[in-house]
């Protein structure tokens, strides 16, 4: 068995300043454990509690700073970045409202699961699985979004595509907390919209103007929506994102990731959208897969535009922990069922980020003024998948498990990159976010796009591969077939 690579974090200045809601037994125990175990990445600075008798008193060395009504004042005064709710029985609608209030000031809310209250015992910090990100990714979770992001959102009409997905729904939640004039949630899947609306408003009648069913491949439909809603800010999260699927079905990747993006950009520019933010991927840097090539093309689509007023920016994500269909969901099922954990290669590594970090990056990009730029979060060093799974097994109390190596899949890299050929990282006003201006689109780009779209529309994958190679010169497709012949 490979031993877990635990986070070493002796610098407490890197920890996120945290207030604990609830100064009861659960809250006091939680604050104690968060302080003791720095790998949680949080440093408790005090409590909030509605019990008048507890105001100003100290518990475990930390003072009760106010009541829940004082949330905004405490967050500002104590520079709080994370709010942890340690009242397991708090009703979900109150948790949701608290989350929206905290998000409006750029803070993140975490919640002890209600089922823990049924255990009838003192609750320790080790029960908070969601907080133990540091041991998995080899670094503390970063608080990315600044309070300045609120100014870019408040009072604006905001459209989020892919609103029912993991990133899209979290974007909607945080944007809603910033007080937009209107939040428009667009998705082609009505079930996803139903779930997102339920999470955000506590009911999901699907009879409001906030929820829109539409396909980004349908240009006429998008122009209709932009005329009707006149969004000022667009977050484009809709995409096909599973690498092996797109290797087998490259035409679909072009239709959604490239043509769909161009449809949205053209609608945004035509209707004087102020800011358009594309969610890209680190696989777009020196791509070896259809996913990476189509996402790089989506970035180039933004670069090829020269709008007078619309600011077009892209953000590149690493692998997002906790998103639907992500690695941890698959590994959890394998570990808990006793099945061998499948890994493609013993040395494969990836950059990882949490959903909160990913959305924070998007919101920061929305407030930055540089046009035709790509933003990248400093995600530390790549993490070996073997180490991540070993640490995850420890969190699940799985002491022993088997690993089966399956070999790299077509299009898959052994190690990802953040910047491609000809790209250089430039500092921004955010210490953990870099910016790069990628090389311009190649000559004949627009004509090449038309040929690519024609090949995709007629479902000719061989032609699609050829056009991708012409339009993205750094695209080097791999046909990994090698299987590692030993198990671990």
UniProtKB/TrEMBL annotation:
It comes from the Bacteria. Pfam families: CoA_binding_3, Polysacc_synt_2. SUPFAM superfamilies: NAD(P)-binding Rossmann-fold domains. Gene3D superfamilies: NAD(P)-binding Rossmann-like Domain. InterPro entries: NAD(P)-bd_dom_sf, Polysac_CapD-like, Polysaccharide_Synthase-Rel. Residues 158-435 form the Polysaccharide biosynthesis protein CapD-like domain. Belongs to the polysaccharide synthase family. PANTHER family: POLYSACCHARIDE BIOSYNTHESIS PROTEIN EPSC-RELATED, UDP-N-ACETYLGLUCOSAMINE 4,6-DEHYDRATASE. This is Polysaccharide biosynthesis protein CapD-like domain-containing protein. It comes from Kribbella karoonensis.
């Amino acid at each position: 068995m490979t031993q877990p690579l635990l986070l070493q974090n002796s610098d407490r200045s890197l920890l996120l300043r945290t207030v604990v809601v609830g100064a009861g037994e659960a809250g006091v125990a939680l604050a104690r454990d968060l302080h003791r175990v720095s790998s949680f990445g949080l440093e408790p600075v005090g409590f909030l509690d509605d019990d008048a008798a507890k105001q100003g008193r100290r518990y475990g060395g930390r003072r009760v700073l106010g009541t829940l009504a004082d949330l905004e004042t405490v967050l500002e005064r104590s520079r709080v970045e994370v709010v942890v709710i340690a009242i397991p029985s708090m009703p979900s609608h109150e948790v949701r409202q608290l989350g929206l209030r905290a998000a409006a000031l750029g803070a993140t809310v975490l919640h002890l699961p209600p089922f823990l209250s049924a255990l009838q015992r003192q609750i320790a910090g080790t029960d908070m699985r969601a907080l133990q990100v540091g041991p998995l990714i080899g670094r503390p979770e970063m608080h990315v979004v600044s309070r300045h992001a609120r100014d870019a959102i408040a009072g604006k009409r905001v459209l989020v595509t892919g609103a029912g997905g993991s990133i899209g729904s979290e974007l909607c939640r945080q944007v809603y907390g910033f007080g937009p004039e209107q939040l428009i949630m667009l998705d082609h899947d009505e079930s996803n919209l139903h779930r997102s609306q339920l999470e955000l408003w506590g009911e999901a009648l699907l009879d409001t103007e906030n929820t829109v069913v539409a396909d980004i491949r349908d240009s006429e439909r998008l122009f209709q929506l932009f005329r009707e809603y006149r969004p000022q800010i667009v977050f484009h999260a809709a995409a096909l994102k599973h690498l092996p699927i797109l290797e087998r079905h490259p035409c679909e990747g072009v239709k959604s990731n490239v043509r769909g993006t161009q449809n949205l950009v053209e609608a945004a520019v035509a209707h004087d959208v102020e800011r358009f933010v594309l969610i890209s991927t680190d696989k777009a840097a020196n791509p070896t897969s259809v996913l990476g090539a189509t996402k790089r093309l989506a970035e180039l689509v933004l670069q090829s535009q020269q709008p007078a007023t619309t600011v077009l920016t892209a953000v590149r994500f690493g692998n997002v922990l906790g998103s639907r269909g992500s690695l941890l969901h698959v590994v959890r099922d394998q570990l808990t069922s006793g099945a061998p954990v499948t890994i493609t290669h013993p040395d494969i590594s990836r950059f990882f980020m949490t959903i909160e970090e990913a959305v924070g990056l998007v919101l920061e990009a929305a407030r930055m003024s540089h046009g035709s730029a790509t933003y990248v979060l400093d995600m530390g060093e790549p993490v070996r998948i073997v180490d991540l799974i070993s640490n995850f097994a420890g969190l699940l109390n799985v002491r022993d498990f088997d690993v089966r190596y399956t070999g790299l899949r077509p299009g898959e890299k052994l190690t990802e990159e953040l910047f491609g050929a000809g790209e250089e990282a430039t500092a921004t006003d955010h210490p953990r976010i870099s910016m790069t201006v990628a090389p311009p689109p190649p000559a004949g780009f627009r004509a090449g796009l038309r040929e690519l779209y024609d090949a995709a529309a007629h479902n000719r994958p061989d032609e699609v591969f050829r056009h991708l190679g012409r339009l993205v010169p750094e695209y080097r497709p791999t046909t990994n077939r090698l299987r590692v012949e030993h198990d671990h």
